[in-house]
Amino acid sequence: MEIARDSGNDRGNDRRGRGDAPPPAVVLVRPREDGNVGAACRAMANMGLDELVLVEPVVAIGVLGRALAKGADHVLAGARRVGSLAEAVAPYQRVVGTAALRARSASGVVAPRELPAVLAADPPGTRAALVFGPEVSGLTNDELALCHPLVNVPCDPVQPTLNLAQAVLILVYELFVDRLARGAAEAAVVPEPAPEAAEHAQVEALFAQGVALLRRVDFARDDTFDHVRRDLRRLLARAALSAREAIILRGVCRRLDYALDRAEEPDAGRPDRLHE
Fold this sequence. Notes:
single chain, Alpha/beta knot, 7-stranded parallel β-sheet
């Protein structure tokens, strides 16, 4: 299978992962087994990633590699090949390296489950690359020096090293699960839609009802009432009433108006009227 060669691409910009950042790329440095390359492609596709970079020399992809890339042909076909790790990671702002057992005690080494929080702390739009060394030797010290943080997958001492494709799957799985959790959290905090605002005519009708009530209870006793009316109009403007709030307040005004009418009836003070 022919794999594209170029010095960079923007495919990751079309899909978003952490916040508004594109999903990370996977960089395989000098892979020696085509089955590992194919299985890594499938792991990437399983977890929603499609940007693969291969650092030369790269094993020829044969029948086994294509078979293990089942369902991820687009990842394998779209991979770009470059001559060095420095060239591979040039487009990215965050370069994550995978460290062998000997590097666990080094500074800046995190577990796979800690990696999502590290990436989430980066500024929005930060492009990240996950770098994996060759099967036998892993990344060289010079190559590790290009990476921060380093990720080490804890294993049982009886078999302390992982298969390359398995290592890819573990890291991209942790990132995928974190992305799902963040998406669920954001979906759970959906703000309620803003209520429909009251039309100006509704507010003016409410204002007129309120002023009429104030006049009925003899609040407008002197020439200061014009200033009071102005202040009340400003208060309503600041309140930015919703349509429902305006309807409720207009209903209150109507009930108060009705109560005043009842109070002014000639027999309103009779005892038998108090229990109606």
